[in-house]
Amino acid sequence: MAHPELAPYLSGNAQWAHQTAAADPTFLPQLATGQAPTVLWIGCADSRVPESVIMQRKPGDVFVHVTHSCQFQAEDDSANAVLNYGVLHLGATHVAIVGHTACGGCNAAFAAPRDGAAPGNHLGRFLAPLIALRHSLPDTATADDLVRANVAEGVKNAVASETIQTAWAQGKKVYVHGWLYDLKTGLLQDLHYSQGPQ
Ligand SMILES: [Zn+2]
């Protein structure tokens, strides 16, 4: 094999597929006919926050979009496309914006000077709003305060989005939540930022 470090990834998948089919032969063929996830998870790309693993969910349970540093930016077409499809087409009724402790992106933004990261590269441009958010916080704020503020900002942007406003105008019972995942304990915490239809 050209890249032996990949062997456990592929053999792990083969083993998982075999065990899943053995446990319930109808499960995977049924999934292949469609999906109706209840939850749309918008989280961080961080490898330590695998949403379905930490919530003990199965394939089909969670529609997922991850971004760098768990930002849900108002002008992000990719994130908004997932929100649109997940809520208006698949019928997800709970959108969870999920930050996590010790987030590398939030730590970088927390340490960045007020004038922001180097312009002209993707990472710098994407981090700019997070750096601005960091400098809107009090001097006593910690990096994890920035994580929570970033989740609050994501909830605000998701609520203001065309998708959520359309869903509510159509009378859909769709809710947007803010959650925090603690890497040290493995626990998800509801930050009580939830908003729903009036
Ligand atoms: Zn992160």
From TrEMBL:
Q: What does this protein do?
A: Reversible hydration of carbon dioxide.
Q: What does the record give as EC number? A: 4.2.1.1
Entry's cofactor comment: Binds 1 zinc ion per subunit.
Q: Where does Zn(2+) bind?
A: 44, 46, 100, 103
Mention one GO molecular function: carbonate dehydratase activity
Top EC class per UniProt?
A: lyase
Hey, which family's this protein in? Belongs to the beta-class carbonic anhydrase family.
Name of the protein this chain belongs to: Carbonic anhydrase
TM stretches of this protein: none
Q: Which PANTHER family match?
A: CARBONIC ANHYDRASE
InterPro entries reported for this sequence = Carbonic_anhydrase, Carbonic_anhydrase_sf
Catalytic activity entry? hydrogencarbonate + H(+) = CO2 + H2O
A Pfam family this chain is assigned to: Pro_CA
Q: Which SMART domains match?
A: Pro_CA
Q: Which UniProt keywords apply?
A: Lyase, Metal-binding, Zinc
| Superkingdom of the organism of origin | Eukaryota
Organism per entry: Vanrija humicola (Yeast)
In its UniProt record, which GO terms are filed under biological process? cellular response to carbon dioxide; cellular response to oxidative stress
The cofactor(s) it depends on are: Zn(2+)
UniProt-listed Gene3D superfamilies: Carbonic anhydrase
Q: Do you know which SUPFAM superfamilies this protein is assigned to?
A: beta-carbonic anhydrase, cab
